[in-house]
């Protein structure tokens, strides 16, 4: 199966909300209240889509060509400016700080369908439940190891993992040590 058709097959298993099939959803709404509701719907859609596809970092220009921002059936797509507006909303307090721009050019953003502190809680719960406190684990085995294959954090982006572990370090619940490519973590 070609890469494009694999992506289409995976996208077809994602259930888009009803508003996605409504042409005005792809155009900025003129009234403030309606625009705010529209941005909220885009935020929820982006988070759900990224969670479904395990996307942690979104490159905006590339995403414009995916079903996330392009409804081929309607022949409608979100413009670059409107996609950035949706991410801006997500990055704001009103949007729940569910995105974070990477750099001033706003070409890439973290999409926080789970924020680093939420991932930290999931990981800390697993550590507690499996009796891993006091054990040293490599970051690689934490997100790619056999013991974590069935965990939600399996396959977690390494940068997101580091951000998450830093929240545990600040709370005195973990210590990260080693060099960039050979890092380990000990949980307390």
How would you characterize the overall build of this protein?
The protein is of the alpha+beta class. It folds into 2 domains: 92 residues, Arc Repressor Mutant, subunit A (Orthogonal Bundle); 72 residues, Winged helix-like DNA-binding domain superfamily/Winged helix DNA-binding domain (Arc Repressor Mutant, subunit A, Orthogonal Bundle), CATH 1.10.10. Helix content is 43%, strand content 13%. A 3-stranded antiparallel β-sheet has the order 1-5-4. Strands 6-8-7 form a 3-stranded antiparallel β-sheet. Strands 2-3 form a two-stranded antiparallel sheet. The chain is elongated and about 55 Å long. The N terminus is likely disordered. Keywords: Cytoplasm, Protein transport, Transport.
Shape: elongated
CATH class of the largest domain equals Mainly Alpha
CATH architecture tag of the largest domain: Orthogonal Bundle
For the CA atoms, what is the radius of gyration?
19 Å
Number of helices: 7
Total beta-strand segments: 8
CATH superfamily of the largest domain: "Winged helix" DNA-binding domain. Chain C. Domain 1
Q: What amount of the residues lies in strands? A: 5-15%
Oligomer class: single chain
Major sheet: arrangement of strands: 1-5-4
Structural class: alpha+beta
Keywords: Cytoplasm, Protein transport, Transport
GO molecular function: protein homodimerization activity; structural molecule activity
Subcellular location: Cytoplasm
Protein name: Vacuolar protein-sorting-associated protein 25
């Amino acid at each position: 199966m070609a890469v494009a058709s694999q992506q289409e097959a995976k996208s077809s298993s994602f259930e888009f909300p009803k508003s996605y099939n409504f042409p005005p959803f792809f155009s900025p709404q003129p009234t403030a209240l309606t625009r705010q509701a529209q941005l909220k719907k885009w935020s929820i859609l982006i988070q759900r889509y990224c969670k479904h596809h395990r996307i942690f970092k979104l490159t905006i220009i590339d995403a414009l060509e995916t079903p996330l921002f392009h409804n081929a059936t309607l022949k409608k797509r979100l413009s670059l400016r409107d996609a950035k507006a949706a991410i801006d909303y997500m990055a704001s307090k009103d949007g729940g700080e569910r995105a974070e721009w990477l750099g001033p050019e706003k070409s890439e953003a973290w999409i926080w369908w789970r924020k680093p502190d939420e991932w930290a809680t999931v990981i800390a719960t697993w550590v507690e439940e499996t009796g891993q406190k006091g054990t040293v684990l490599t970051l690689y085995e934490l997100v790619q190891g056999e013991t974590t294959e069935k965990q939600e954090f399996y396959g977690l982006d390494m940068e997101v993992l580091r951000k998450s572990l830093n929240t545990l370090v600040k709370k005195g619940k973990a210590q990260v040590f080693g060099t960039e490519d050979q890092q380990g973590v000990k949980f307390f």
